[in-house]
Structure formats: structure tokens, C-alpha cells
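hey can u check if this looks right to u? its 238 residues, i copy pasted from the old doc so theres a chance i mangled smth
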Amino acid sequence: MKTKTEILLPGGDSQLRYTTGNVEINGKRILILGSGSGNIAIELLKNNAASIELIVEDYESLIISQLSLENISKITPKLMDFELTDFAKDTFDIVYAQASISNTRRNKIIKEVKRILKNDGVLLVGEIIKLEKDIPQFVRDIFEQSDLDPLFIDDLKNYYYSRGFEIQDVVDYTKTLKEYYSSNLGKLKFSVSELTENEKSYYKKLINQISHQSKAYLKQGADKYIGFYTVAAKLNKR
């Protein structure tokens, strides 16, 4: 039995397992968008990807990625804005993004993905989505705090279709969010116990944000409004 790969992102290892089970990885040049994706890169390389570029948008995430992927020559972590990369047109066979573009810059990021993805290239994107059109204020607050701009579930397919993608599959991984938020609370409790009082004060806002969001999902009914779906789509530039 295969061991579970630890992915500390919404969706867990579900999107990765879907990708390795349904998408041709062998010999492909792959771009991964988002911090916390080091283990994803390693697993895709095990499936014989030709090379993998992993881009993050902050220096701390870059250092973490460089340390975790040290001495793996076919995986290259870089610091770049997702909507304005340094890559040439038609560079990648596959672009993989897990919970990293469900934000207010989605349109610009997807425009850049289209530029650097080859014709007939595959986009695998995990989206935080709204399960209801109208959501209560406390759920809006969660989205605003995290700079999220989730699509409504009924609009998900058309969003990518209208931007030149042929939808291959849409998979509901909402059930993974309970484990994700539960894990967040557990890790937060342990981490806080290891911090000094000064560190607790410094990270107070982040600690409160993680705690609030996790408890809202697990105990206050936010699970009725927040989902996670993976879209597999092929780009048609014709």
C-alpha cells in the first residue's frame, strides 16, 4: 500500500494522487505555483517528469523550498510573481496550482499561465470555492483575511472554458478540508507552545487568523459554504 504524502495545503494529497493517476507526467516539463509544494514536486519527479520549476512569491517560502529540495537538480525553486513570470512563451507541458490562485489576482495569473503553457498543455488547479451564492458575513471575513476571491461552484467550469481551456475533469475534494483545518489547529497548538512570549506577540495576528478560520470551519458552520475542487483542463490556443 502506498504511503500518504504529506501536503499541508487544502486538498491534502488528493490533487497530487489525481494527477499522478490521470495525467501523463513522463518526460514533461512542469511548473508548480505556490508555497508548501515541495513534496508535490518530489512526487511528480518520481513519476519521471523531465524537469520541474517551483515558484513562490515570498522570500521565506523560497528559503524553505530551497532547503527541502536541496541537491535535487531537476527541481528548481524560484521567487516570482505568479502573474508576471520570467518564462518564455509556450514553455511548460503542465502547470500545477493547489490552493494558490483562488485570490483577487486570479484573472491575471491565468492570463500568464496561458502564455507560458504549451498548446494542448494541461492545467491542474485546486480552487477554494463557494458552495452557496450568498454567504454569511463571517465567511466573507475569512475570505477577506486570506485575500481569497472564490468562484461560486456553478461558475467554476465556465470560468476556465471561457478562457480557452477544454475541461477534462472536475473533482470534488471538499471532504479533505475537515482534516486540513483540524491539522492546522493541532499544529498551531504545538507551535504556540514552543514560542516565547515575544514571538507569540509578534505572530499574534497570524495565530489568531489561523485559529479563527479553523474553528469557523470545524465548529461554526463555515463548512456549509466553503469547498475545494480540482479542475483538470487542456489549453486550446487555436
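The chain has nine helices and eight strands.
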